[in-house]
Automatic annotation (TrEMBL):
<dbReference type="Pfam" id="PF02875">
    <property type="entry name" value="Mur_ligase_C"/>
</dbReference>
<feature type="domain" description="Mur ligase C-terminal">
    <location>
        <begin position="310"/>
        <end position="408"/>
    </location>
</feature>
<dbReference type="InterPro" id="IPR004101">
    <property type="entry name" value="Mur_ligase_C"/>
</dbReference>
<comment type="pathway">
    <text>Cell wall biogenesis; peptidoglycan biosynthesis.</text>
</comment>
<dbReference type="InterPro" id="IPR036615">
    <property type="entry name" value="Mur_ligase_C_dom_sf"/>
</dbReference>
<dbReference type="Pfam" id="PF01225">
    <property type="entry name" value="Mur_ligase"/>
</dbReference>
<dbReference type="InterPro" id="IPR013221">
    <property type="entry name" value="Mur_ligase_cen"/>
</dbReference>
<comment type="function">
    <text>Cell wall formation.</text>
</comment>
<keyword id="KW-0547">Nucleotide-binding</keyword>
<feature type="binding site">
    <location>
        <begin position="120"/>
        <end position="126"/>
    </location>
    <ligand>
        <name>ATP</name>
    </ligand>
</feature>
<comment type="similarity">
    <text>Belongs to the MurCDEF family.</text>
</comment>
<dbReference type="GO" id="GO:0005524">
    <property type="term" value="F:ATP binding"/>
</dbReference>
<dbReference type="GO" id="GO:0008763">
    <property type="term" value="F:UDP-N-acetylmuramate-L-alanine ligase activity"/>
</dbReference>
<keyword id="KW-0132">Cell division</keyword>
<dbReference type="InterPro" id="IPR050061">
    <property type="entry name" value="MurCDEF_pg_biosynth"/>
</dbReference>
<dbReference type="GO" id="GO:0005737">
    <property type="term" value="C:cytoplasm"/>
</dbReference>
<keyword id="KW-0573">Peptidoglycan synthesis</keyword>
Amino acid sequence: MELNNIKRVYLIGIGGIGMSGLARYFHHLGCVVCGYDKTHTPLTDDLHNEGICVVFEDRADWIPMSFQELDGDTLIIYTPAIPKDSGILNFFRRRGFQLYKRSQVLGIISKSMYTIAVAGTHGKTTTSCMIAHILKDSGKDCSAFLGGISSNYQTNVLYGDNNIVVVEADEYDRSFLTLHPDIAIITSMDADHLDIYGDHAHLEESFKLFASQLKQGGTLIYHKGLPLGSGLTYAMNDEAQAMATNVRIEEGNFYFDFNDGSTSIPNIKMGIAGLHNIENAVAAIEAALHVEVSAEAIHEALGSFKGVKRRFEYIVKNEGHIYIDDYAHHPEELRAAITSVKRLYPDKKLTVIFQPHLFTRTRDFADGFAEVLDMADELLMLDIYPARELPIDGVDSDMILNRMKMLNKRKCGKQESIEIVQFEKPELLLTVGAGDIDQLVQPLKHALQNV
């Protein structure tokens, strides 16, 4: 496929964070861009307002006529999350179009560019956004395809005037194996997506394959302790090659010193909170140093980094109430978020609202979720968000609740959770989950602030 010849792009599942980034990219190039998604979201509204046509009915007769004739000027992209019986998907198949996964298109776009790819079962979105911000803020510049909305740029895709591209490399459906990076970062390899991989060993095998796809002379940067071969290791307060030391909190801000044996950057002030984000920053610093960004520019950029929407994002922060929203949907992500909140606010009672994501993930990690959620002082548990999955007998959010030791826990609906927050006015509130819990953020903010 020659991207230079593409004039029309149709995306099936356009509302996904990765798919919407491609939609914006091709729209920026001047292509006519249309797409389908099953639900209205603020992101699909943004696409519409940017001049991209989005429909919400999975019907072939809603496909514009200009997309219905088979030719080399039209590109069809789909997400693996789309059901196999999708009317629009099967229309294009019947017409003989070659359909490309998002990951395949990213692979083609990045093939001729200097690619920094960030992979990991968690940490990849924030780390890739950090790298992109360092390169932009320093004047080095880059393009970027991000797995979240950057708070600095209010978008998930950035356009640069050079040959560097930062890509979030997704392990779901082995998507990242379409990439051949110059710098590969692996933040974590915890068991996840076992509906795809079957077991942890096959997941690890995929990450090792990704690491082996470095271009000749490329650099692998990975968290110390991961079962990977040669490369540069990083960690916090550990004997890795790149380290964060002297980690501290001063007036609610995180600070640390960086050292990798050849470059030292003291007294770095983080623009965002979270112990896990200091580790992400060490990986981002190392990537930036490899493309010759100065230590001074890195120091300044990390201080102005505002993070990613729904990644340890402050919604309310005043003397009376703290409300943080996070995308965490795996036990280790929850552990990182809850640990950081408790470290920042050790004297406040922590109320957590959690929405489990996927029946398979709940089934596979019920014990882990229960253990981590017991770290909170109070828990409001929502129903499982099914996403692409059908229900599994015996699997629901009670599966987690029943394993917990905490007494101050209850299951509730979304509206009920808003009413509880409005009545109880918790001093420290954390919402976590990857489903549609984000729709509660503004109502909860209003409930907390409505005296």
